[in-house]
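Q: My collaborator sent me two sequences in one message, no labels, and asked for predicted structures for both. Can we handle them in order? The first one she listed is below.
A: Yes, handling them in the order given. First sequence, followed by its structure tokens:
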Amino acid sequence: MKRFISKLLSPQRFFIISFASVIFIGAVILWLPYSAAGSHINFIDALFTSASAVCVTGLTVLDIGTDLSLNGQIVTLCLFQIGGLGIITFSVVLFGLMGRGISFKGREIFQSTFLHTPRRDFLVIMKWVFGLTFIIEAAGTFFLFLRFSQDFSPLRAFYHALYHAVSAFNNCGLSVFPDKLVRYQNDIIINVTIMALIILGGIGFIVQYEVVSKWRGYQQRLSVHSRIVLLTTASLILGGAAFFYLFEMNHILKDVSIKTQILTSFFQSVTPRTAGFNTIHIGLLTNPTILVLIMLMFIGASPGSTGGGIKTTSFALLLLMIWNRLKGQEQVNAYDRTIPGEILTRTIAIIFASAFSVTLITSILLLLGGTGNLPPLESRHFFVEYLFETVSAFGNVGLSMGITPTLSVGQKLAIILTMFAGRVGPLTLAFSWYSPKRGLTYAEESVMVG
């Protein structure tokens, strides 16, 4: 029986089941009366909130600060901390600290989650990941506490600081404030601290490890992976901020100070990359800005991080593939290295599977939305809102144009599935359904494309 279960539970299935189990347990706890601040929370809303927290998405059908009690809020904090690092990572580190052996399945899951190439010192890296995580979250809590202490009592200020620091580093976006961070739109400390936490949590733990190792002299050069991540991340932040300012300077940024314009532009460029905090009302943005946010949400964070999306490396490799094809080159080179063809094939599959998933879920939301009785011109806005909601869920972002609380039960289930697929990966979810088998190799025959 043990051998049968071990064979049945492949690393992909084990990874998926672990996340699904934590989501279900969290939903049950949030469903209990002591998790609600007032009236009893129905199970579908508890399941939605738990899935959003574990998948570090940030979409919510509840007001975390008023609908959940302190116990319920602490439960969500624990859920997105576990969801950001992964339940398997917690288990492996615990076994390592206890001196117990780590299974091959645990090694494979951790290395595929956080490392671009297998390493023998992965347990050292794992412990380093945990230590750095809590150091960064503690530093973020300290700076946020300095600001929140001006508005709240010391104990409440510390709690708000801790909740938002952990939420930001894990790229979750859940907040105890009903308007998230709109009230702190022009506050430098809040904006800079939250942005720093989001970026550090979104670049990936192995990139953090390599940067620190190089800075301390333990490593001579950064890997190609880290270089691509850092360059792509910086480019997306600067480009996103520039486009946001360009499209909103005569609209939502028109009557605010230069400082607020700069903070808002950069904040809304950083946060769509899987964080979900906002300092402006998303529903008031122009159509070009909405398109930019959708693109940033779809790209997401970097591999081995707490964020979602197709990842910055996938986006960068896609651009490199297109550029090399235009130059007539078969191989893709970066920093004097050739990217393996297997990685390029996987990149294309990830992008296609992600786009297909977004299209499918958006269609389901439209079909379940009950907009068929409305004239086309009156219901046109639902398409943009549902598309934005779907990409936000799939990219584990948490931004919304304000329709999340109005979703029907069927739509909520579709968004839950989307958040889950975005967290574990659409290919991982697909591969978990079957065991790979070696097939026959046939003679090749060409097909016209393009």
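Q: And the one she listed second?
A: Here it is, processed independently of the first:
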Amino acid sequence: MEDCAKKTADYLLQINAIKLQPSNPFTWASGWKSPIYCDNRKTLSFPEVRTFIRDSFALLVKENYPQAELIAGVATGAIAHGALVADAMGLPFIYVRSGAKEHGLGNQIEGYYQKGQKVVVIEDLISTGGSSLSAVKALREAGCDVLGMAAIFTYEFKKAADGFATENCRLNTLSNYSVLIDTAVNTGYIGTSEVETLKSWRLDPAAWGIK
């Protein structure tokens, strides 16, 4: 998976799905200052990248979760990716909302599933892990057997790692922050002088940039 991680990171940088701006930080919705911004929805607009991610996910699921019976996407960013993976693998697909609908049937999980089905959850991005694990909890409460989660990219925050460990949920990703930084340096996207700034942000993102 090392080659996959490098190629995924390279693709994300090439299409600007990930932007690195250590000297001109972004502000996340949480209020955090960040030298990186990730929007993996952009991968869907590039057929070569989209196909690579689909095939990499399918291989990851086959190798790590061969007993999978159902693919679930996390709304909204991973609905399309999850559907593509399910189609490639010939498996049924469902998706999980952030909360139950306030009208109609009031569903949080959309699609047909049965209690006891073995599910792999597809996600586009892991930051703190909160919304991703909420989807896992919803599936488990509905009676599904969640085998694990597969995501395109993770920032590798300790909070996320701790959360997945607490919930006893396996996490596999196509790429990660460490590989991204190495790839960005090797391709000349950033200079070596910016590496320490980027590494220090990941260690304490909530406090980074606060003067």
